[in-house]
User: Which sequence fits this backbone?
């Protein structure tokens, strides 16, 4: 996977070298470029961090417990951290769905939004975006790369500028709330989805005992193995949507030594094959 994963002097990790790209800048946030050529519906995806998605071709439909939102070319969708959504990416006339997204570290939201008592809906559509808003979004996206030596402080400033633009439109993300044990475990597992995680190791990392961890997770309606599987599949989905990394490498990055076994588990979770996302199985839609 080394050929598809590169780093920079600023600490940014770039996954993918083609049209699809995912950027992770520690302490700042993350960004990605999704390219999809098939119309697929994806269910029960946990949004880990507050995110803003700008559609550049096609349309994106998000369904959540509070309703449904659809964004078309030039429009954006915001999703608050912790939301569980179903979504569909529909290609446009070009035959491709394309979107850029950025997300914020929880700490960055505090500085801008903590003083606002009212907050926007869990999922919101942002239409009629003017050129200045879109330019601010693209600057924030480019700031995640760090390839030109852009300091982290400037990259953070660019992300905060987008929050200010949203505020000018009357929208604010809520400040981060208390973190549940399930969220703590999910974040821990997400740091290395390929690792052979055990309940004993996770209990140690979260300063608790295995029985207590099992009981607390049960109160949130989740079992450890189910949570680990979901984290791995969510990471695989992100890699498939945002990078051109081969399926075998995606399998290895999510703890599977076999591409066929990984593909079977992925299909069982999402209802389609990993290759369907990139349009490699045209005519084999679900």
Assistant:
């Amino acid at each position: 996977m080394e050929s598809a994963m590169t780093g920079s002097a600023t600490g940014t990790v770039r996954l993918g070298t083609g049209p699809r790209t995912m950027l992770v800048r520690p302490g700042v946030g993350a960004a990605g470029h999704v390219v999809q050529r098939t119309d697929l519906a994806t269910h029960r995806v946990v949004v880990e961090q507050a995110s803003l998605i700008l559609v550049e071709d096609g349309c994106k439909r998000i369904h959540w417990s509070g309703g449904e939102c659809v964004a078309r070319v030039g429009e954006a969708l915001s999703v608050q951290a912790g939301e569980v959504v179903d979504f569909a990416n529909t290609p446009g006339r070009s035959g491709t769905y394309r979107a850029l997204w950025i997300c914020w570290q929880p700490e960055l939201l505090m500085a801008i939004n903590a003083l606002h008592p009212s907050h926007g809906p869990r999922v919101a559509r942002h239409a009629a975006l003017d050129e200045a808003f879109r330019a601010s979004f693209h600057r924030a996206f480019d700031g995640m790369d760090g390839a030109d030596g852009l300091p982290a402080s400037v990259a953070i400033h660019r992300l905060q500028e987008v929050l200010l633009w949203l505020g000018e439109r009357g929208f604010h993300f809520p400040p981060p709330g208390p973190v549940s044990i399930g969220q703590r475990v999910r974040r821990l597992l997400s740091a290395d989805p390929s690792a052979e995680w055990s309940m004993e190791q996770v209990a140690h990392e979260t300063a608790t005992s295995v029985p207590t961890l099992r009981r607390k997770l049960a109160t949130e309606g989740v079992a450890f193995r189910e949570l680990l599987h979901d984290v791995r599949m969510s990471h695989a989905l992100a890699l498939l949507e945002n990078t051109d990394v081969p399926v075998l490498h995606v399998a290895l990055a999510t703890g599977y030594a076999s591409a066929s076994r990984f593909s079977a588990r992925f299909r069982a979770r999402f209802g389609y094959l990993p290759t369907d996302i990139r349009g490699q199985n045209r005519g084999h839609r679900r």
In short: The CA atoms of residues 42 and 270 lie 6 Å apart.
